[in-house]
Amino acid sequence: MKKIVLVLLFCLQLFASEMLHVDEFTVSVYGKTSKSPVLLNASLIFEGRDVDINDFRIIDGLNVIIGSFYAEDLLTSKGKEVLKKSLTEYLQKTYAIDIDNIYIQKLFIDEQTTAQKIIEAIKKEGICK
Question: Regarding the domain delimited by 17-125, which CATH topology (the fold level of the hierarchy) does it fall under?
Answer without folding.
Answer: Tetrahydropterin Synthase; Chain A (3.30.479)
